[in-house]
Amino acid sequence: EQLPLSIEVNGKMQQVNVEPRVTLLDFLREQLQLTGTKKGCDHGQCGACTVHVDGKRVNSCLSLAVMHQGKKITTIEGLANGDELHPMQEAFIKHDGFQCGYCTPGQIMSAVACINEGHANSKDEIREFMSGNICRCGAYPNIVDAIADVKN
Ligand code: FES
């Protein structure tokens, strides 16, 4: 059985039907083909699936799509302004904040939230806020540098 869902994704209103068991992550990737949001662990452990819900970061693998009736979702695809990258995307490039890039969309969504939610006042604070986003290549110092750069 499917349930009706009205949800705004990257500024576009979507009126869709979804199965109640579908996670927000699978809904974005499979139903809307927004595959920038990555599935790492599917259990809330890695942060690869991080998106913003009404401006706050959320692990999209941990919540069901139908819980977001009327909410505004932003994914990595919605961050740039047309051809102009978001300052955090620019900073990740400038500071080499990635190697393989798999965790990068989630890292960037968390990094933007880190500043917006007021947790980027020191490198320690940044590290603490970003601790749920795992990078197996170990790009952590560069990621912290990128966030600190955007903050300043
Ligand atoms: Fe959601 Fe890992 S895929 S936290």
List the helices and strands and how they pair.
Layout: E1 3-9, E2 12-18, H1 24-31, E3 50-53, E4 56-59, E5 72-74, H2 87-94, H3 104-116, H4 123-129, H5 140-151
Parallel strand pairs: 1-5
Antiparallel strand pairs: 1-2, 3-4, 3-5
Helix pairs in contact: 2-5, 3-5
Bound molecules: FE2/S2 (inorganic) cluster.
What does this structure look like?
- Residues 3-79 form the 2Fe-2S ferredoxin-type domain.
- GO terms for molecular function: 2 iron, 2 sulfur cluster binding; metal ion binding; oxidoreductase activity, acting on the aldehyde or oxo group of donors.
- Keywords: 2Fe-2S, Iron, Iron-sulfur, Metal-binding, Oxidoreductase.
- This is 2Fe-2S iron-sulfur cluster binding domain-containing protein.
- With 152 residues, this protein is an alpha+beta fold.
- It folds into two domains: 3-77, Beta-grasp domain (Ubiquitin-like (UB roll), Roll), CATH 3.10.20; 87-151, DNA polymerase, domain 1 (Orthogonal Bundle).
- The chain is 32% helix and 16% strand.
- It is built from five helices and five strands, in the order ββαβββαααα.
- The protein has helices spanning 24-31, 87-94, 104-116, 123-129, 140-151, and strands at residues 3-9, 12-18, 50-53, 56-59, 72-74.
- Strands 2-1-5-3-4 form a five-stranded mixed β-sheet, covered by helices on one side.
- α2 crosses α5 and α3 (104-116) runs parallel beside α5 (140-151).
- The longest helix is centred in the C-terminal third of the chain and has 13 residues, at 104-116.
- It is globular.
- Bound molecules: FE2/S2 (inorganic) cluster.
- FE2/S2 (inorganic) cluster binds at residues 39-42, 44-49, 59, 61.
